TrEMBL record:
This is Rod shape-determining protein MreD. Keywords: Cell inner membrane, Cell membrane, Cell shape, Membrane, Transmembrane, Transmembrane helix. The chain crosses the membrane at residues 53-72, 93-110, 130-153. Belongs to the MreD family. The gene is mreD. It comes from the Bacteria. InterPro entries: Cell_shape_determining_MreD (IPR007227), MreD_proteobac (IPR026034).
Length: 161
């Protein structure tokens, strides 16, 4: 029996990712904060490409820029690049086991950091500290639990993977 898809799963997960990004962390843990929005967007791009695409990534990125007070368009650009790469390789990535998906997501998050660092260089912003590069590792480690949680939210229950 096929379970119905929850129409509220997508907006609630994006809102939760925005709130997790705003959650204050101790200074020691702040560099380990995963890019929650990228993880959530990656899930939706892989699982429901008919609902989520480049336009959605751009819109969520602009909302994120406004929410976090960052340079307008920075996160939008980063998320659109990630969405484009995910759309391009979705057919392969979708059928990887979660451990291999986590490695691919880690690579995408590292690519996101490279884009952010490049923007800082181009705009003459302060150089990023070495801890800046730890976040993709955290995101990679959290991919499986995030994927399973969002899958349960979307499908209305747990499924084997």
């Amino acid at each position: 029996m096929m379970r119905g898809h929850s129409p509220w799963a997508l907006p609630l997960s994006v809102l939760a990712a925005l709130l997790l990004g705003l959650l204050p962390l101790p200074e020691l843990l702040a560099p380990l904060r995963p890019y929650w929005l990228a993880l959530v967007l990656a899930y939706w791009l892989i699982e429901t490409p008919d609902r989520v695409g480049l336009g959605f990534a751009f819109t969520v990125g602009l909302i994120s820029d406004l929410t976090f007070g960052s340079l307008l368009g920075e996160q939008a650009l980063r998320l659109v690049v990630m969405a484009f790469i995910l759309q391009r390789f979705r057919a392969r990535l979708r059928f990887f086991p979660l451990s291999q998906q986590a490695l691919a997501i880690g690579g995408l998050l590292l690519n996101d950091r490279i884009i952010a660092a490049g923007l800082h260089v181009v705009l003459g912003a302060p150089t990023l500290r070495i801890e800046f590069w730890l976040s993709p590792l955290t995101g990679m480690l959290l991919w499986a639990p995030v994927f399973l949680l969002l899958d349960a939210l979307r499908l209305g229950g747990w499924r084997g993977r």
